[in-house]
Amino acid sequence: MSKRTTFTTITPLPAGVSRETAMATLHDHLEMIDLNPAHTDRHQISPPAEASPEEYHCTWYKITDAISYFPGYKGKVSFNACFHDLSNGLQTHVYAPMGLDIKEKWTLGGNEPHEPIQPVELGIGAPISGLYIREDVEMKCNFLMTRFVRKTLKDCLATLVARLLVKAQLQEAAEKNRRLTYTTNQSFSPPNSPPAPLSPPMSPPPMVHQHLAPKQYGTPPVSPPLSPPVSGTFPPHQYNPADYAPTAPHCPPHWSEQRSHIAPTQGQRPTYAPQYDEKPKYNEMDAGQTTGPPAELP
């Protein structure tokens, strides 16, 4: 005679277990199968023909158990099970022999110390703060097997919590060793954060041209590009080397001899403008010689 039984189990998680560690364990199908010590073998299979349309796209496994029918008599039994990952847990459906049908739903609830406290469901015994695992079970089996199956499922949940605690401690120790290694060697950078490559300059440095100027006063020509375009040639109209040819330096004006164009009046001698570099000339006189009129200028 088959009997339908439903029950919910709440198991608080230790403070050292993070949400990421718990979710990684729930989504590890092989680890969840190995929680039951009676399972001796498991391997992934294709969906069976009797799978429902919803469960056809789930992940299926064939599991083998070692059971004891009578004292001193042991045997093995195989059955199929499907696993479906949820955003906050895992859902399984086991098709076991002797009409045993088990539907389980594992969900992760509660909050971590740095997360806000969320309202909890009443009547299930969930803690107000901290993470916890909720197991909702719906099974159909012979009423004589109900107590045995229920005890087996609770033992599996206790084993899961113990493994989560050990895994969290191992991960915390590995993270602490990694931080100590990076702190001791300051010059070593973690492989997850490589140094960012240097970015090229936004614009090339200005080019200083001495004695280079475009011809006359016009629009200055465009500077030649620093690198050729994709075609490999420079545009002919953007750069003219003749515009950057050096110009001759500007020299001061040449001063020439200046003569007056006004005719001298009678009795006056023509004026003579000496050059700037010319020095006045003086005639030497002997002793007793008198001065006379100046010599006629040519």
UniProtKB/TrEMBL annotation:
InterPro entries reported in the protein's UniProt record: DUF7053 (IPR055481)
Any single Pfam family the record assigns to this protein: DUF7053
Region (Disordered), start-end ranges: 180-298
Residues annotated as domain DUF7053: 2-169
Chain intervals with Pro residues compositional bias: 191-207
Organism domain of life: Eukaryota
Protein name: DUF7053 domain-containing protein
Organism, scientific name: Venustampulla echinocandica
